[in-house]
Design brief:
single chain, about 210 residues, Rossmann fold, seven-stranded mixed β-sheet, about 25% strand
C-alpha cells in the first residue's frame, strides 16, 4: 500500500528531513503562508504537515491560532509536537488524507504543501477536504507542477524508482481534479522557487462560480 510506503520512508527521514530540505521548505512554506493569508481567528487543517514548519511559521505571528496538523509519519509528528509545544491551540494527529478523522464542516482553511503527488487517490482526498471544510472555507494546495521541465523529469524517474510516489500533475490536470471534486478555483498560480523547483498553487472553494466575489 502506498501510504504504508510513504509512512516508512518519512519515519526513516524524520531525523534529517529539515536539514536536507531546509532551503526548499523555507521558500515554499513562507510562500504558502503569504498566499493563504489565514486570519488569526480561523481554524486550520494542515494535511501532510511533516515536522510542523508551516505551523511554526503561522504561530510565530498568531500564537493562539487553532491548527491541526495531520501526517502519516509518527516520527515526523513527534518532531512537530516538540517544535510547537509552547503553543496552546495546535495539535498533531496521525491519519490519512483519504479518511480525515473530523466532523463535516469543521475547518475555515485547509492547506497541503508538497504532498499531492503522493496521494494514492487524489479525488478521494479532495472529497474529504471538501467534506470537512466550512461552506465559506478555503482549500489551498501547493505541489510540484509537471508544466516545469525538472518536475517532469522527477516524475518520470520517481514513478519508476520510488514506490511511494504516485504522480505529478500539470496545472490543467490539477484544476480538472478540483472541478471533478466539486471545487471552484478562486485563485491559482505557477511559481518557480529556484532553477530547479517549479510548483503550482490553487485556492479553491465549495462555492459555485456565480457566488464568487468579482
Amino acid at each position: 500500500m502506498a501510504e504504508t510506503t510513504v509512512r516508512q520512508q518519512y519515519d526513516q527521514m524524520a531525523g534529517f528531513y529539515d536539514r536536507r530540505w531546509q532551503s526548499y521548505l523555507t521558500a515554499t512554506l513562507t510562500f504558502l503562508k503569504r498566499w493563504a493569508n489565514v486570519p488569526p481567528t480561523a481554524t486550520v487543517l494542515d494535511i501532510a504537515c511533516g515536522t510542523g514548519m508551516f505551523e511554526h511559521l503561522i504561530l510565530a505571528d498568531a500564537p493562539y491560532q487553532s491548527i491541526v496538523g495531520l501526517d502519516l509519519s509518527p516520527q515526523m509528528l513527534a518532531i512537530a509536537r516538540r517544535r510547537c509545544q509552547a503553543y496552546p491551540h495546535v495539535c498533531f494527529q496521525q491519519a490519512s488524507a483519504l479518511a480525515l478523522p473530523f466532523a463535516d464542516g469543521q475547518f475555515d482553511a485547509i492547506v497541503s504543501a508538497s504532498a499531492f503527488h503522493y496521494f494514492d487517490d487524489p479525488s478521494a482526498a479532495l472529497a474529504e477536504m471538501k467534506r470537512v471544510i466550512k461552506p465559506t472555507g478555503r482549500i489551498i494546495v501547493l505541489d510540484w507542477c509537471k508544466d516545469f521541465l525538472f518536475c517532469r523529469i522527477c516524475d518520470f524517474i520517481l514513478q519508476r524508482n520510488d514506490p511511494a510516489h504516485k504522480q505529478c500533475y500539470t496545472q490543467a490536470q490539477f484544476h480538472q481534479l478540483l472541478a471533478q471534486a466539486g471545487l471552484t478555483v478562486r485563485r491559482s498560480a505557477r511559481q518557480r522557487f529556484s532553477l530547479v523547483w517549479g510548483l503550482m498553487v490553487a485556492t479553491s472553494t465549495t462555492e459555485s462560480t456565480s457566488n464568487l466575489d468579482p
